[in-house]
Amino acid sequence: MVRRWRREARCVPLARAELRKALADWGLSELEGDALLVASELVTNAVRHAVAPRDREIETRYVRLGNGVRVEVHDVSPAMPVVGESDRGDDGGRGLYLVAALADRWAVGERVGPGKRVWAELSVKVQ
Question: What DSSP line would sit under 4-32, residue for residue?
Answer without folding.
Answer: EE-SSTTHHHHHHHHHHHHHHHTT-GGGH
